[in-house]
Write a structure and sequence with these properties.
single chain, alpha+beta, Nuclear Transport Factor 2, Chain: A, 13-stranded mixed beta sheet, twelve-stranded antiparallel beta sheet, 10 helices, globular, EC 1.4.3.-, copper, transmembrane
């Protein structure tokens, strides 16, 4: 019976006998009780032994424990039933002990898939069209100056929702594939940023270039940073760095620039006004002996600001230098003079300090001075596919266990899923990452008040190739995406998305009773997308469950952005281990507090696009108040034993609104279809369950709060509009005095009853860096569930094999068995 633990007849009878003994003892003498007990225990033993043997004959399916992973002789009995029609599928034959394998991908359909990310070929075609139309003015397509016009970003422009729905569900015309292209027009008399729709991308002969913005609508100073601007900034600062050379050598362990130091510019935002642009910069050690995003863990107390609006770099200048938080000094000469006159505090890093950074602080090599943990030299547990993949990918359309959906991605916003269906029903039209916001607080010149909105920098802006056996299991299938590199004016390819079935090795559901037992092992399909944005690594996951749940997860790892620890900081108190903004976490280093807020577009289509948004209030109060929510009752029925209770109050939202999680006033958020009901007459729906541990705490008066409006709400509901594609604008953090694409603008009081509604979901976590964040932040995460809410008539898993056994009836069922085999090394 060791291999059939879910049901043990002997144990169940023994439990019943305990109840019998308690009652019997009250009516008999101690002597009679002892005699009866011995007889009864003997009976229990005999019945349990016989019952256990019988149940074992019917239910035993265990794998021979002596079978090794090289063995092909495990002969399971399969799923047996006498009361249902489930049959055991034929077991594929192994190939010399290797697990059966098949490629789940049909990549020939990639570019013909409606939502597939743009390919390198399509990006080249779009750039050729723009080049031929004189939209690009660079020499040899290689930008060397901000006074040229060149492509900043390029990604798929999804079709209008109405057109896609007609194609997928009503035999409409297949939408063409178009690129959305951002062009930095520095060659114009009045420079600006323009966005264009380019395509269809089948060939250049019938392609069009359609403006999506008006000339001058996006101010040139609202542009994202790019390599051309950084090169211009470096050139401008070259003279200042030479003037600072003696100060740098004395302060920072005999360091020289640029051999040992780099300049970090991305301490956003670049000023407060759209018409201006100021870039704060901070010096840092090159721990890797080259410019690396990881090196912002090594920033130093020397900073300044570049006034750099427009495309004419001869008008740019530096100002507001700080050293050890002392300043501002109008020019670098003013700072050097004060330093040489010994009128300011100085820092002297110990000799050899910077040479220790690579090993001691930066690189994630195992500490060989420590002994290995017990058995750490042995391979860890693994999962594999004994029958090969159970999912199929046609282009970028995925099918698995009655789920189907399309995968997409773009370099600014990141991964997205479209046309998500379960058991033939549409659940959502679009589920997409939209933006990531971080707000830092620290006592450091050049770094205080940092606000990042990562879509501005590009969530999939750089090579995010997946790491096999780290990001994804070796058996996962991988899909390519492409991104446009503005400095090289060229598209690059990368394997950035992996898809695989995962074994949760736990129960999706279970129950063990006195007469029966059953359960289902939890398995789910995972779409995982790791991305790198400077120092931080994010991993986005979409998990599809057998019962119709969809779990969206955002995880963070990588290096923190640190600030310099000043032992004699006059703002710090007597406790030198922490200050108002975080803890000391290493030599000359503090970890500034910040948050990570992930914004998602969740365009639910429950059955179709005519949906409503219900808020189910979870309340507590008097019995009479609870009953009055449903009727005009005036008296409390006598069967209530308390005067207080919990109850639900139902509200259909009539107008667009945003909501914050509040555990003193809890709510359930449900998208329902008013026109379809389940077997019990209840409106079919899906619940949105934010699993967030953070909320926005910045006050409304903060200059960035309009641009960051999506972080104020955990769930927002609006009416679908094509022009409201995203919950933020990539330009607004660079034009905080004149934002134009923020979420609050969408909340214009439109009716949302029985309409095409869109939810915008924000989840996140607070990060207080501690010493455990060095050198690497170990994964932290947040997310949300999309959960069936009266969508089905019953639990939606009983069309799958499961474990079940019943005493006294010939019902014994198990999952399909398989021959033990060696996992394939093939990569898909």
């Amino acid at each position: 019976m060791a291999n059939n633990p879910g049901f043990d007849k002997g144990a169940n009878i023994s439990n019943s006998s305990r109840t019998y003994h308690v009652k019997h003892e009250e009516q008999t003498t101690s002597k009679c009780f002892m005699f009866c007990s011995h007889v009864f225990v003997l009976l229990v033993f005999v019945v349990g032994l016989v019952g256990g043997i019988l149940i074992g004959i019917f239910a035993y399916h265990g794998i021979n424990e002596t079978t090794s992973c090289q063995n092909q002789n495990n002969q399971g009995t399969g799923a047996k039933t006498s009361n249902n029609n489930l049959t055991q599928p034929t077991t594929p034959q192994t190939n010399n002990g290797q697990c059966p394998s098949r490629n789940p991908k049909d990549e020939t359909l990639y570019e013909s898939t409606v939502f597939a990310p743009l390919t390198v070929n399509e990006m080249k075609l779009a750039s050729d069209i723009l080049w031929q139309g004189s939209y690009i003015t660079t020499v040899d397509r290689t930008p060397r100056s901000l006074k040229e016009s060149y492509i900043l970003y390029m990604y798929l422009l999804p079709p209008r929702k109405e057109d896609a729905i007609k194609y997928f569900y009503h035999n409409g015309i297949k939408p063409g594939r178009y690129a959305r292209v951002h062009i930095q027009r520095g060659a114009e008399k009045v420079p600006d940023i323009m966005e264009y729709k380019v395509g269809p991308l089948g060939s250049s002969s019938n392609a069009n270039v359609i403006p999506l913005t008006r000339p001058g609508e996006i101010h040139f100073n609202s542009r994202p940073y790019d390599g051309v601007e950084v090169a211009s900034l470096n050139h401008l600062l070259d003279g200042d760095m030479k003037a600072l050379a003696p100060l740098i050598r004395e302060s920072f362990d005999n360091a020289t620039f640029p051999e040992d130091l780099f300049i970090f510019y991305f301490n956003g935002p670049p000023g407060l006004k759209e018409a201006e642009r100021e870039t704060r910069f901070v010096l840092g050690f090159r721990g890797f002996r080259m410019i690396q995003d990881a090196d912002i863990i090594n920033l130093l107390p020397l900073s300044g600001t570049v006034y750099n609006p427009g495309s004419n770099t001869s008008d740019w200048y530096t100002h507001s230098y700080y050293y050890l938080n002392q300043g501002p000094y109008r020019t670098v000469s003013d700072l050097v003079a004060e330093y040489n006159n010994n009128t300011i505090r100085k820092v002297r890093l110990p000799a050899g300090y910077r040479n220790k950074l690579w090993k001691k602080r930066l690189f994630f090599e195992r500490d060989h001075s420590l002994p290995l943990r017990e058995y750490a030299d042995r391979p860890g547990a693994r999962s594999y596919m004994p029958h090969g993949p159970r999912f199929r990918i046609s282009g970028t359309k995925v099918k698995w266990m009655d789920w189907s959906f399309h995968i997409s991605a773009g370099q600014l916003r990141g991964p997205a899923l479209f046309d998500i269906r379960f058991k033939g029903n549409r659940i959502a039209y679009e589920l997409a990452v939209n933006d990531i916001a971080l707000a830092y607080a620290m006592d450091a010149s050049g770094q205080n008040g940092i606000i990042y909105m990562d879509a501005t920098y590009g969530i999939m802006e750089r090579d995010n190739t997946i790491l096999r056996d780290v990001d994804c299991p070796s058996y996962a299938a991988a899909l390519n995406t492409s991104y446009w590199h503005s400095f090289f004016q060229k598209a690059f390819d990368m394997k950035s998305i992996c898809i695989f079935e995962e074994d949760g090795q736990e129960a999706l559901w279970r129950h063990v009773s006195t007469t029966f037992a059953g359960g289902m092992r939890n398995r789910y399909l995972v779409v995982r997308v790791p991305v790198v944005i400077a120092n931080y690594d994010y991993i986005f996951e979409f998990k599809f469950y057998i019962d119709g749940k969809l779990y969206t997860v955002a995880k963070a790892s990588g290096y923190i952005q640190a600030s310099f620890w000043d032992e004699y900081n006059p703002h710090a108190g007597e406790d030198k281990t922490r200050d108002a903004f975080g803890y000391r976490i290493s030599d000359y280093q503090t970890g500034p507090i910040h948050d990570h807020m992930f914004g998602f577009k969740v365009d639910m289509d429950v059955i179709d696009s005519n949906n409503s948004f219900e808020v189910v209030h979870w309340k507590a109060g008097d019995i009479l108040n609870a009953l009055k929510t449903q009727s005009n009752i005036t008296n409390v029925p006598p069967y209530f034993i308390y005067n207080q209770t919990r109850y639900l109050e139902y509200e259909t939202m009539r107008r667009e609104a945003g909501f914050r999680l509040n555990y003193d006033n809890q709510k359930l958020f449900v998208v329902v279809n008013e026109n379809t009901r389940n077997k019990w007459g209840v409106k079919r729906g899906y619940q949105i369950v934010p699993l967030s541990t953070a909320a926005q705490s910045l006050p409304e008066v903060h200059p960035a709060m309009k641009a960051l409006a999506f972080t104020k709400y955990h769930v927002t509901v609006t009416k679908h509009k094509e022009e409201e594609q995203y919950l933020s604008s990539i330009y607004d953090i660079n034009r905080m005095d004149n934002p134009k694409g923020y979420l609050d603008r969408m909340l214009d009081n439109e009716s949302i009853v029985n309409e095409d509604v869109v939810n915008w979901v924000t989840v996140g976590f607070l990060h207080v860096p501690t010493s455990e964040d060095l050198p690497m932040t170990v994964r932290v995460e947040s997310g949300f569930l999309l959960k069936p809410f009266n969508f089905f008539d019953t639990t939606a898993t009983f069309d799958m094999p499961q474990y079940s056994a019943m005493q006294g009836n010939d019902i014994v069922e198990n999952e399909p068995t398989f021959d033990a085999c060696v996992e394939s090394n093939r990569e898909y």
